[in-house]
Write a structure and sequence with these properties.
It is a peripheral membrane protein. Keywords: ATP synthesis, Cell membrane, CF(1), Hydrogen ion transport, Ion transport, Membrane, Transport. Belongs to the ATPase delta chain family. There is one protein chain. The protein is an alpha+beta fold and 179 residues long. Helix content is 61%, strand content 14%.
Length: 179
């Protein structure tokens, strides 16, 4: 996967450089790139776009026809560039890189919070307040429930993981006793 990220990064950086001049443009490009990534990640779409019987123009028309949002000339040019360079299937990685650049520019980050039990809105806000102090960033929460954690939470912000789950504590105890 690191190879795909490396290939996707220049496209995301170029797109971000185009969009970052205007906050409205940045938000609209972010939404559009994520929509393009969703469409490109569908199995049927991936299969159709790799069909050797299709020309690049047919691939462009096929792909743009699947997009619900209206496409500007710049967005259409971006899709054409990706198709002609054989990179249209990298859209999920491009969207991920674009979101990272956008978050970095805005001083925010995604906090992936996994809890053993359902968290109330007030619990999420309390947790976010502490995490924002720790990381010095404005965090956007993405909360999921995983009963396998037994208790506690696991938080992933960028490449940092804070795991206070019972499952992680039991694993640490097991490793300590085995050593």
């Amino acid at each position: 996967m690191a190879e795909l990220s490396t290939i996707a990064r220049p496209y995301a950086e170029a797109l971000f450089a185009t969009a970052k001049g205007n906050q409205d443009a940045l938000a609209s490009w972010s939404g559009l790139v994520n929509e393009l990534a969703e469409v490109a990640s569908l199995d049927d779409v991936r299969e159709a776009l790799t069909d050797p019987r299709l020309s690049n123009d047919q691939r462009i028309e096929l792909f743009t026809g699947l997009i619900k949002s209206p496409l500007s000339d710049a967005a259409r040019n971006f899709i054409e560039l990706l198709v002609k360079n054989g990179r249209i299937l990298l859209l999920p990685q491009i969207a991920q890189q674009f979101d990272l650049l956008k978050n970095q520019f805005e001083g925010t980050a995604l906090a992936e919070i996994t809890s053993a039990f359902e968290l109330s809105d007030s619990q999420v806000q309390e947790l976010l307040t502490g995490l924002e102090k720790k990381f010095g960033l404005k965090l956007k929460p993405s909360v999921t429930v995983d009963s396998a954690l037994i208790g506690g939470v696991r938080v992933i912000v960028g490449d940092q993981v804070l795991d206070t789950s019972v499952q992680a504590q039991l694993a640490r105890m097991r490793d300590t006793l085995a050593a």
